[in-house]
């Protein structure tokens, strides 16, 4: 089971006031890959990357045995492989889970580059949430979608 890490950062403002910015790491800490970083400030939430670890689910799945696509996020949640974050996931991805659908409260996802440890779980994100990426990353994702089952 994955344990999620969080950090709080004080940001000092001119005039001595401050506000709290929250940074939560849903992977990518003490490991290579699985980059999902939630930054929250004054009610605005954005994710930096939404990837998959290199050994994703290796203790449960192997070779031909993978999480069932028809089950949406069900298998991923069942084995603790994905964080249960209300207001993030597409409604159809939650159909077989105990996490009820909620309108998105995440403003955007920013993808840094087209490595699967940064992008591979973007397919689970609610399509109402804006995704920002460079033209090279977009071209790579579109190409991989055309020729393979690269994006879960």
Name the poorly predicted regions: none
Give the biggest beta sheet: 6 strands, mixed
- The whole-angstrom Rg is 16 Å
Quick one: CATH superfamily? Ribonuclease Z/Hydroxyacylglutathione hydrolase-like
Query: Helix-strand pattern, N to C?
Result: EEEEHEHEH
What is the CATH C-level name? Answer: Alpha Beta
**What name is given to the CATH topology?**
Metallo-beta-lactamase, Chain A
**Beta-strand content estimate:** 15-25%
Oligomerization category of the chains in this entry: single chain
Q: Helix share of residues?
A: 10-25%
Principal-axis shape equals globular
What's the total helix number?
3
CATH architecture: 4-Layer Sandwich
Number of strands: 6
Task: Compute the average pLDDT.
Answer: 83
Number of domains: 1
How far from one another are the termini?
20 Å
Strand order of the largest sheet: 1-2-3-4-5-6
Look at the helices and sheets and give the structural class. alpha/beta
InterPro entries: RibonucZ/Hydroxyglut_hydro
Protein name: MBL fold metallo-hydrolase
Organism: Candidatus Methanomethylicus mesodigestus
Question: What structural keywords apply?
Answer:
152 residues; alpha/beta; Metallo-beta-lactamase, Chain A; six-stranded mixed β-sheet; 6 strands; globular
């Amino acid at each position: 089971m994955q344990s999620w890490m969080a950090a709080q950062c004080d940001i000092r403002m001119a005039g001595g006031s401050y506000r709290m910015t929250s940074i939560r790491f849903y992977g990518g800490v003490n490991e290579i890959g699985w980059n999902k970083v939630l930054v929250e400030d004054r009610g605005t939430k954005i994710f930096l990357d939404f990837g998959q670890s290199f050994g994703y689910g290796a203790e449960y799945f192997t070779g031909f045995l993978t999480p069932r696509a028809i089950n949406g996020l069900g298998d991923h949640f069942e084995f603790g492989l994905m964080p249960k974050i209300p207001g993030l996931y597409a409604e159809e991805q939650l159909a077989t889970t105990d996490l009820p659908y909620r309108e998105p409260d995440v403003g955007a996802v920013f993808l840094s580059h087209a490595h699967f440890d940064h992008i591979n779980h973007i397919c689970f994100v609610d399509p109402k949430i804006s995704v920002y990426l460079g033209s090279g990353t977009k071209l790579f994702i579109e190409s991989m979608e055309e020729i393979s089952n690269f994006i879960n």
